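ok new one. same drill as before - structure tokens go in, u give me an amino acid for every spot. 473 of them this time. try not to just spam alanines like last time pls lmao
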């Protein structure tokens, strides 16, 4: 007995606490490895060329690209978004807006603003999707195609866009996101350098909240004024500039953001396009491509390029942010369930060992273990099983790792991209990188636990994602 606690119970609780600590340390070790790999990748990369040199170097060799922009009830912002896309600096591209059964005036706004007329355009039904009701074009904007179809969700709309498109490369994005003018030319480089291996490329997603935006362009980069948006700014730096750059360097990347990703059309058609009965269609597509290429014994590269930037609006309320994070986590679990046989399988190389091992550790086991840790460790201390020294050491190591990783990601951003010109913004984000470990990180874990519960209940709901839009910024 230990102060009235049965020895067997105390021993079991101590083993559970040890398991929690080991898993937590292992997660933090993985994050440190990611930070190191990302730093090495940035050191090895040549300086990003200026736009003029970039055009001279890659314009003639750049393959045609179709930008696919699914839109559902985007009447307030769709015209500005489309104008922004049409003004991108790329030699050969078309913009395909897919109106996914909007119940507002999205289609009519497009017809009125761009003087659209019904267009006869042949396309094959290579991928299943909801019926297309009409295809529209504009004589004065030959690069613009508008597809009107029955509502089927984002994945279904993208599948329709893939069928209608003709370019060998397509870019999937959100209709309300903003691409920097040279984003396509920067993102397409892996397809030019390794055309036989490259099947997908992702770029950086940045938070536009707080920035000054005019005519669909980010004119001045500023840190957000909303606390939740500030937390997300640091999160996005950690997720993209650290995690995805690291896994891309060793060819173990399993996700490309649905807000901005380039894909080889023929390979995507070969795997059946986007899966419609999942909320993690972006991650699932990348995993399907890895699996296809490995099963065929073909070389495969899924790359991340940090320089091309897509700006998006981050949620500024707890309710909307919580729904988003629960949905993201649910999507990761659905992808793991569909492809768990890739885990640790030699056939799938680093993707099976590192990519899927990371999903198992961070997404499948991580939230449960972290929640157990925050519950179990203090309980064991109260029971007298765990000394106060061990408790304090666990908390100190956990929070120190979190701070180091977040500040490290911010340092990488400043050393490579230098997107925040004002020193006051960098000081603020550094403080946020420390502060997020005391409350926000734990709240995020609760949202992930809700995602696990929704996954177990087989929920397919996206939840309302209220946005303010860019027009007033």
């Amino acid at each position: 007995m230990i102060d009235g606690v049965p020895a067997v119970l105390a021993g079991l609780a101590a083993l559970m606490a040890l398991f929690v600590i080991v898993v937590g340390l292992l997660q933090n070790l993985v994050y440190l490895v990611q930070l190191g790999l990302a730093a090495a990748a940035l050191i090895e990369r040549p300086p990003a060329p200026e736009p003029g040199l970039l055009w001279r170097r890659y314009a003639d060799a750049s393959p045609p690209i179709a930008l696919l922009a699914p839109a559902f009830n985007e009447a307030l912002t769709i015209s500005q978004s489309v104008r922004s896309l049409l003004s991108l600096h790329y030699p050969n591209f078309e913009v395909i807006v897919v109106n996914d059964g909007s119940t507002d005036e999205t289609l009519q706004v497009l017809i009125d603003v761009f003087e659209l007329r019904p267009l006869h355009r042949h396309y094959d039904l290579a991928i299943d999707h909801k019926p297309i009701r009409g295809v529209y074009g504009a004589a004065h904007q030959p690069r613009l195609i508008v597809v009107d179809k029955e509502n089927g969700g984002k994945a279904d709309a993208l599948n329709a866009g893939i069928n209608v498109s003709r370019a060998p490369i397509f870019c999937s994005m959100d209709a309300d996101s903003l691409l920097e003018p040279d984003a396509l030319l920067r993102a397409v480089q892996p397809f030019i350098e390794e055309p036989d291996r490259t099947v997908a490329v992702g770029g950086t997603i940045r938070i536009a909240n707080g920035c000054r935006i005019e005519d669909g362009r980010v004119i001045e980069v500023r840190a957000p004024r909303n606390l939740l948006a500030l937390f997300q700014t640091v999160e996005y730096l950690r997720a993209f500039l650290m995690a995805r750059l690291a896994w891309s360097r060793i060819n173990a990347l399993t996700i490309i953001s649905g807000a901005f990703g380039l894909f080889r059309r023929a390979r995507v058609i070969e795997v059946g396009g986007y899966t419609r009965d999942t909320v993690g269609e972006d991650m699932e597509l990348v995993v399907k491509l890895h699996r296809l290429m490995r099963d065929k014994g073909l070389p495969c590269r899924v790359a991340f390029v940090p320089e091309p930037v897509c700006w998006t609006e981050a949620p500024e309320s707890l309710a909307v942010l919580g729904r988003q994070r629960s949905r993201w986590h649910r999507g990761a679990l659905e992808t793991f369930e569909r492809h768990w046989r890739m885990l640790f399988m030699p056939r799938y190389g680093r993707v099976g060992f590192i990519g899927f091992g990371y999903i198992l550790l961070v997404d499948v086991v991580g939230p449960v273990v972290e929640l157990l840790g925050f519950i179990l460790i203090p309980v064991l201390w109260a029971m007298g099983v765990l000394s106060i020294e061990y408790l304090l050491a666990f908390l100190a190591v956990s929070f120190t790792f979190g701070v180091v990783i977040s500040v490290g990601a911010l340092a990488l951003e400043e050393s490579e991209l230098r997107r925040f010109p004002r020193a006051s913004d960098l000081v603020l984000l550094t403080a946020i990188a420390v502060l997020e470990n005391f409350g926000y990180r734990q709240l995020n874990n609760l949202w992930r636990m809700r995602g696990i519960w929704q996954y177990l209940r087989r929920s397919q709901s996206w939840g309302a994602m209220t946005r303010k839009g860019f027009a007033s910024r």
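The radius of gyration is 23 Å. and btw The longest helix spans residues 7-44.
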